[in-house]
Amino acid sequence: MEIYGDYMGDQVCKIPILHNGPNDSRIWFHCPLGNYSTKSAYLWLSLRHVGLGPHRFFWRMVWKLQTLPKIRIFCWRIGHDILPTYEKICNIRRDFNSDCPRCGRDKETLIHALKDCLRARAVLMHGGLNSKLLDGSHYWGVDWIKKVARLLDLKALSDFITVLWNIWNSRNNKVFWNMEEDAKVTWERAAALSYDFRIFNLLNEPSLPKPDVNKGWRKPNQGMVKINFDAVVKDRKMSFGIIARDHDCFVLGRHAGVLNRNYNAEWAELYALEESIKLAWDNT
């Protein structure tokens, strides 16, 4: 009642219970078959620890990046703070110098290597990056990327992560080959990579193909009725449509309408749901 209000809640409570419906059963929602197992519980707890924690937005965003898979994995490693920076190596080898190999001004943490180092900052500033993305002090890389993700759209964020990946490669060239690159070279390499990736996906089969998803209508079980509804909002008007079909796809009822109401999408869908309940109740 608190969610839908007195009228809507009363309509929901009046929906009759099917006497020939399936028997009540306990279902484990974290397994496709609904069966509980120790393995499925362990996987659920592991995913819950990663995906439903304070950084769930970050983990969902990583795999949506419009860039090469190896750059996605690089962003994933940033989130887990497992890039082999000098500070990380120093925690294993106590006699190892943790100072930044490029500027030598501070310990080479992940944030320092990708943002605070003078060489890295020069690359970020070369492309006219918004100063808001570089302001503030962050201890964890995941917090910085989350802040950036709130200010950029997905395409710009993908380009930003590509720049960070090239900054890290430039750092590795200095460490392993003693080759220091100019900020312009690093930035232009990142820009060319992003451009080539998008052009390739336009002219050829995408490097990141979308999975095939069956979005067809599924008929209900024997003796049951399925009601589908939808709503659209445009130009301060709302329109909705409802259709009820049985297990043989035979249309049992339908309803549509247009209202001069300035609803948002959520309220329009809720109104269509209310009309669906009325349709079901009037035909029982």
UniProtKB/TrEMBL annotation:
Domain Reverse transcriptase zinc-binding: 36-122
Domain of life according to the entry: Eukaryota
InterPro entries in the record: RNase_H-like_EbsB-rel (IPR052929), RVT-Znf (IPR026960)
Protein name per the record: Reverse transcriptase zinc-binding domain-containing protein
Species assigned in the record: Gossypium klotzschianum
